[in-house]
Structure formats: C-alpha cells, structure tokens
C-alpha cells in the first residue's frame, strides 16, 4: 500500500459519504491563506468526530488545540440546541483565524475560543465551573499529553468520551527507546489511559490523506 492508494480511498470516502460543504472548504482555504499549518483532521476524520459527538449525546464539548477551528466546527455542528463547545488555542493568530471561521459557520454563539497555553487556561475552566464535559478532543502538542489527559479526567464525568489524536506516529509509537518527544507523549497517552481503572479505552489506526496515524478512544466509567 502507498500514500497514493490511501489518498485515493480517502477521496472515495469523501465522494460517497460526505456532502459538499462550502463553509468547511472555506475554512481550509482561509487557514491556508493565513499561513496556518495544514495539520487539520481530514474530512473523513472530521465527520467521525461529528458522529462520535452525536453518538455520545454530548451537550458540552471541550477541544484542546483549535488551530483554525476545522475540527471544532465539525463537532459543534453535532451539538443539540443549547449545546456549547469550548476550544483552547495557544497561538493568538490561529485563534483569530479560528474565530473568523467560526463566525462564517454561524457558530459564534455556540463555540468559545480561549487563548493561551492550555495548561494555563484549563484551570480557569475548572474555576469557572465549565465542566463536566461530555466529549473531549485532545489534539495539541503531544509532549503535554499526560497533563492534558489529567485535566480531561478532572473535567469529565462517568460517560465522558475522550479522543486523543496523533498517537500512532507512523508506527513509531511501538519504539520504547524513542527519544522523540512527540512519540513519548503518544506512548504516555496509552500508558495513562490504559492503567486508569476509571477508563475503558482502545485505539484505532488510520491511513489516508494524513498518512499513517491514529486515535485513542476512551470512555470514563
């Protein structure tokens, strides 16, 4: 199998299962125009997040790592009337672009963007009584996965779904001797969620337009 095959299959999935969406296409276009890195989830992965939020019956979503709000919009669209999403972004420019994208999607009253290092803004969420959240998506700097997961558990309830992205790292996650901080952060996510008796978790490997990677999917008991 090659990346060319993965891309072709991703295109087939999109053509058959994901409707044309000028708003989301515009989000990706604005992100590119504003110089944001092209590391958003793929359309198929965005639709997966949307379906997972719906399956969980989530009313409150927390995202750690906004970028340009492409994944945020996918998730927020799955919320029922009165639902809310909070997304945390370190980079002020990325947050500014994200807010413009959110407004263009008509979700300005649903999604709140908080700017700053997530480990600084997460305590504020707790202090504000923003939790517990029903669905938490972790897609930020990988070395801080242990702290992000710790906060996700603090801001969860029994039944909360936690999804952690980019944990397979092109298969290098199996290398216990890796000195790559991103790989070590991915391994930490497996170790923490795997040993916590409150959590039931598994992982799904993915291939496609984003290469070879994967998610951890967890439910708090």
The overall pLDDT average reads 97
Widest β-sheet, arrangement of strands: 3-2-1-4-5-7-6
State the total count of DSSP E strands: 7
Distance between the termini: 38 Å
Largest sheet: 7 strands, mixed
- Percent of residues in helical segments? 40-55%
Overall 3D geometry?
globular
In N-to-C order, the SSE pattern is HHHEHEHEHEHEHEE
| Uncertain ranges | none
The percent range for strand residues is 15-25%
Radius of gyration: 17 Å
Number of helices: 8
SSE arrangement:
Blueprint: H1 3-17, H2 22-33, H3 43-56, E1 60-64, H4 70-76, E2 84-89, H5 92-104, E3 111-115, H6 118-127, E4 135-138, H7 145-154, E5 161-165, H8 181-195, E6 199-208, E7 211-220
Parallel strand pairs: 1-2, 1-4, 2-3, 4-5
Antiparallel strand pairs: 5-7, 6-7
Helix pairs in contact: 2-5, 3-4, 6-7
3D structure, described in words:
The protein is of the alpha/beta class and 221 residues long. Helix content is 43%, strand content 20%. It contains eight helices and seven strands. The chain has a seven-stranded mixed sheet with strand order 3-2-1-4-5-7-6, with helices on both faces. Strand 2 (84-89), helix 5 and strand 3 (111-115) form a beta-alpha-beta unit. Helix 3 runs parallel beside helix 4 and helix 6 packs parallel to helix 7 (145-154).
């Amino acid at each position: 199998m090659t990346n060319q095959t993965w891309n072709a299959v991703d295109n087939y999935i999109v053509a058959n299962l994901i409707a044309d969406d000028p708003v989301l296409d515009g989000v990706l276009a604005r992100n590119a125009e504003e110089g944001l890195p092209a590391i958003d989830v793929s359309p198929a992965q965005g639709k997966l997040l949307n379906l997972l939020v719906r399956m969980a019956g989530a009313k409150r979503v927390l995202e750690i790592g906004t970028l340009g709000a492409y994944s945020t919009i996918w998730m927020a669209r799955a919320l029922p009337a009165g639902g809310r999403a909070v997304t945390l972004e370190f980079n002020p420019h990325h947050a500014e672009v994200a807010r413009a994208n959110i407004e263009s999607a008509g979700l300005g009253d649903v999604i709140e963007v908080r700017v700053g290092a997530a480990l600084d803004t997460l305590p504020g969420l707790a202090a504000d009584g923003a939790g517990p959240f029903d669905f938490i998506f972790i897609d930020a700097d990988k070395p801080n996965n242990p702290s992000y997961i710790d906060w996700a558990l603090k801001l969860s309830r029994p039944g909360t779904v936690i999804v952690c992205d980019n944990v397979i790292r092109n298969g290098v996650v199996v290398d216990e001797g890796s000195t790559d901080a991103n790989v070590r952060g991915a391994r930490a996510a497996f170790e923490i969620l795997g040993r916590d008796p409150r959590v039931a978790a598994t992982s799904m490997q993915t291939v496609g337009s984003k290469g070879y990677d994967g998610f951890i999917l967890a439910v708090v008991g």
